[in-house]
Write a structure and sequence with these properties.
The protein has no helices and 28 strands. The protein has about 350 residues and is an all-beta fold. It has one domain: Methylamine Dehydrogenase, Chain H. The strands form 7 sheets. It has a 4-stranded antiparallel sheet with strand order 1-28-27-26, with no helix packed on it. A 4-stranded antiparallel sheet has the order 2-3-4-5, with no helix packed on it. A hairpin with a 5-residue loop joins strand 10 and strand 11.
Length: about 350
C-alpha cells in the first residue's frame, strides 16, 4: 500500500529513518547529481520528511544543500545523545548535521538540519560510512581504496587513522555492533575484509576474496544475532555469513535477487527480516530462517536504479497500529522517493 511519493531536486540515492524516540517519523533523503561541463561539480542535498503511517501522509519539512552525498547514517540511540546525521560526500568530507526542532508541540514543521562539524578526510571521495555502537566514532570508505576512522567528541570530528585497505573503491565499511573494535570492509576488488582496530591495520584480521564474483556493495551485521552478517554484491547475491567462520557463507547459503544488491536493511525489531535495494530489479523483502532465504515481497514501482531503502523504526504493535511495516525507497535517475507499507504478513 502506497503512502505517498515525491520527486527530489537531484538523483536520489539514500533514505534513512531517524531511530531516536520522538523523531521516528522523520525521514532523511539525499541526492548526488553530477553537473557536467568545463568545470564539473557534484552537488547534493538532504531533505527531511514527516512520515505518518497511520494517517498515510508524507510532508517535506526541511532541506539543506551540500556536496554530492554517497551515504548517510543517523547516530545510534544512546542516553543523552541528540539525533545527528552523518554524511559521506564527493568532496572527501565527513560531515555531521544536528537535528533542530521548534517547540510547537508535536508538530515537526520547524525541523531543520544544521551542520555542527566536519573533517576533510581525503582528496578522494567518501563513499560510505558507519557509526560505532556508542556513537563516538565513525568509519569511512574512500574511492582510492582507503578506510578512515574518525572520533566525535564535544562537537568535534578528528580523524584517528587511515590506511590502504583495498585495490579499488570501498563501497562498504561497517562497525560490528557486538565487537566495536572490529570494522568490516568490502570493495570493487571483490575482497571482504575484517580489521581489528586494536591491532596493526596493515594486517587484516581476515580476508575473503574467493566468494564474491563481483564488487561488494554493502555489509550489514544482524542487530539481533551477534554471529550473523549479510553482504550484498553486484553479482546479485545476498549472502549470509557467520562471523565465527568467515571463510565461507553459512552453509554456502545465498539468494539471487536479480539485480545488484546495493543496500541491505535488517528490520529493526524482527529477526531475520531484510529489506534489499536491488539496483536493476527494484526492492525485495527477504526472510531468513536457519540459513534459508526466501523473497516474501517485491516492490517495483520505481523507474530507475533502486538505491535507497529503509524501515521506519516504530514497532509493529505500537499503539495497536502496524506502523512498523512502513518502508521508504528511492531511485536514482528518476529522482523518485516512495513511502509504502508492506503487503506481506511480516510477523507470520
Amino acid at each position: 500500500m502506497d503512502i505517498g511519493h515525491c520527486y527530489l531536486d537531484g538523483n536520489a540515492d539514500c533514505v534513512e529513518f531517524c531511530p531516536h524516540s520522538g523523531f521516528q517519523n522523520i525521514l532523511a533523503a539525499t541526492t548526488y547529481t553530477l553537473q557536467e561541463g568545463d568545470q564539473p561539480s557534484r552537488a547534493g542535498s538532504i531533505s527531511l520528511f514527516d512520515v505518518n503511517g497511520s494517517s498515510r501522509s508524507i510532508n517535506q519539512i526541511g532541506d539543506v544543500e551540500t556536496a554530492g552525498i554517497f551515504d548517510i547514517k543517523w547516530n545510534p540511540v544512546q542516553d543523552g545523545v541528540s539525533p545527528l546525521i552523518a554524511q559521506a560526500d564527493a568532496a572527501g568530507c565527513l560531515r555531521i548535521h544536528e537535528l533542530e526542532c521548534s517547540s510547537n508541540g508535536s508538530s515537526l514543521s520547524g525541523t531543520l538540519l544544521k551542520e555542527s562539524c566536519g573533517v576533510q578526510i581525503s582528496s578522494s571521495m567518501c563513499l560510505c560510512l558507519d557509526w560505532n555502537p556508542l556513537a563516538t566514532s565513525l568509519t569511512v570508505g574512500l574511492s582510492d581504496g582507503s578506510v578512515s576512522v574518525a572520533s566525535l567528541a564535544e562537537s568535534q570530528l578528528i580523524e584517528d587513522q587511515q590506511w590502504k585497505a583495498h585495490d579499488f573503491e570501498v563501497w562498504a565499511a561497517s562497525f560490528d555492533p557486538h565487537q566495536p573494535s572490529v570494522v568490516y570492509t568490502g570493495s570493487d576488488d571483490c575482497k571482504f575484509i575484517g580489521w581489528d582496530l586494536r591491532s596493526d591495520t596493515s594486517i587484516p584480521a581476515f580476508r575473503n576474496s574467493k566468494v564474491h564474483k563481483m564488487g561488494i556493495c554493502c555489509i550489514v551485521k544482524n542487530p539481533h544475532d551477534p554471529c550473523s552478517l549479510l553482504t550484498g554484491s553486484y553479482d546479485e547475491q545476498l549472502r549470509v555469513w557467520d562471523v565465527r567462520s568467515i571463510s565461507k557463507p553459512v552453509h554456502e547459503t545465498s539468494i539471487c535477487l536479480g539485480g545488484g544488491v546495493w543496500r541491505i536493511k535488517n528490520h529493526p525489531h524482527i529477526n531475520g527480516l531484510v529489506l534489499a535495494a536491488c539496483m536493476h530489479n527494484g526492492f525485495s523483502i527477504v526472510k531468513i530462517n536457519n540459513g534459508n532465504l526466501k523473497v516474501i515481497e517485491t516492490y517495483n514501482k520505481h523507474g530507475s536504479l533502486a538505491y535507497g531503502a529503509d524501515w521506519q523504526r516504530k514497532r509493529p504493535d505500537q499503539e495497536g497500529k502496524k506502523e512498523g511495516n512502513v518502508v521508504a525507497t528511492c531511485s536514482f535517475y528518476d529522482r523518485l522517493l516512495r513511502v509504502w507499507i508492506t503487503e506481506a504478513d511480516i510477523l507470520a
